[in-house]
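Researcher: Last one for today. Full complex below.
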Amino acid sequence: MKESILFWPVRLKGNTLYILDETLIPKRIVTIKVKNYKQAIRAVVDMKTRAFGQFLTVCYTFVLELKKTTLTSKEEQMALLKKIALAFNSSRPTFPFEEVTSMMLGFAQKVYMSTNFKEDFIKMIDGFLEKGIRQKRYDRACQAALLLKDGDVVLTHCHVSGEMSLIGEFCSLQKKRVKFFATETRPYFQGSRLTAWELKKSGLDVTLVPDNAVAKLMSDGDVTCVIVGSDRSAENGDFANKIGTYQIALLAKHFQIPFYVLAQPSKKLISGRDIPIEIREDDEILTFEGKRLSPRGAVAFYPGFDVVENNLVTQHINVDAN
Amino acid sequence: MKESILFWPVRLKGNTLYILDETLIPKRIVTIKVKNYKQAIRAVVDMKTRAFGQFLTVCYTFVLELKKTTLTSKEEQMALLKKIALAFNSSRPTFPFEEVTSMMLGFAQKVYMSTNFKEDFIKMIDGFLEKGIRQKRYDRACQAALLLKDGDVVLTHCHVSGEMSLIGEFCSLQKKRVKFFATETRPYFQGSRLTAWELKKSGLDVTLVPDNAVAKLMSDGDVTCVIVGSDRSAENGDFANKIGTYQIALLAKHFQIPFYVLAQPSKKLISGRDIPIEIREDDEILTFEGKRLSPRGAVAFYPGFDVVENNLVTQHINVDAN
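Model: Here's the assembly. Have a good evening.
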């Protein structure tokens, strides 16, 4: 099965982390070479990588820093990992950095008593990512495909890091023809730049629509289900995702269209009310590629995410729960 | 009361029609000089002018062509007016060109028997626009302001040709402080370029938001009512407006927020189902200012308008009905 580079957008080779610059796609495929955790955090804050890419960036940065450190004592190495964790935790608010860094520190704790602490930690993360995470994402895509019927038309919003084209490919293997509508996803245009690019590259049928066209599409019967990703989940099934997901969920409910979410189960937060919402800079709305869209001095409000209540979700697609 | 140039974006001076190029605002204020009906239709099709500007363009083009014609017989002059009407009628589908051109031809018919047909027609249109239309738009803005309370926060979508700042100014006169949220209104960014510009120029408090943020704003209690315009109305109160209006109306209903429309009463169409919806070119979604947003060969679907059902409207603001 062909895997989009967006499915695994961050890779570690030697002592360099290669982060795919998602802001340049589809124009150019450029990887940012990252040598330390500060550069990694810069890539996250500038949204060069996002969603699943952020997860990989955190994991690999722990490995990278441990690989290249000249610190010899385990105490100092552990202190370094804790410093990196704190730095990621305060980088962006909505994505659960604290959960990922805690998991990494937990892994470190597990092998702390080993005589080959450093090597064992690196091996452990590698196994966790390759066998655990990669496998789970394939399983989740397959499970999503099982929910679809021949002839279904899937509306998606933002970008689910290479998983939507896998869903399409699993559907093909299951002899089901499905089509996709991708919203543009203002203001970062993840739909136009990433989702459309990825689905098209995989030979799937995808049509871009303005975010404003969702109700019309649904009302005209042009969409048979919605599948979106989740940037952060709460224990009760509420989840946060790219701004606009909430209104798509409300519209899907109104038009009685199934609404599925590729979920990441978590028990750290009780409900969606506990998910902090990042407010991004005005300029991301007021300008586009350096050009001003609106008058000088204009004020904008750009919450990066919104929260979808559990009761709007037809089914959480969540391999851990099975 | 200060009138935005967007309130009356088309003017006739001598034998030239000056059409404000709304696509260049807020960067530059440029008027397109139009000498004949073909150039006027080009400006309409290219969306250099839109909404109320289209209405003015039709009216003034009839006057312009009649002023400059060398045809001396009334029969020939009338045939010219009919030719212009047909050309406008087939320019863009959703805006009711046919209603406006029929009205113009009706005026011509009324003064056809006069010995000064040409002069009387020109005078009649002038009176109709200045005393009839301009006065009605002021009345409608005042009526909208009367619906607002001190402290209200109005969400608007797209651009209502200078009427929103008048509403704000009427509120100030009525000693009510109101604030505005304007959606960006992809893909043409009428919200970012026109509404924010106009409201800011009038000293009003306006904040731009992504079209995707509507449900979040409403759910957070940040918006107390919605006011939008209407590109075309049907007899039963359904109306068509810029794509995205329908989902805002559905969300307003869900969150029990009053939804008002600046209406244009018409009895030509029975319901919203009879309103033809213009499908615009792919490229308006796939590129921005000549730059590609999405991969080469990507497909897009961009319906320019959607239809809001009467039952979603709290009140039609319609001076004719009073």
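Chain A touches chain B through 52 residues (CB under 8 Å). Residues 10-135 of chain A form a domain with the Four Helix Bundle (Hemerythrin (Met), subunit A) fold (CATH 1.20.120.420).
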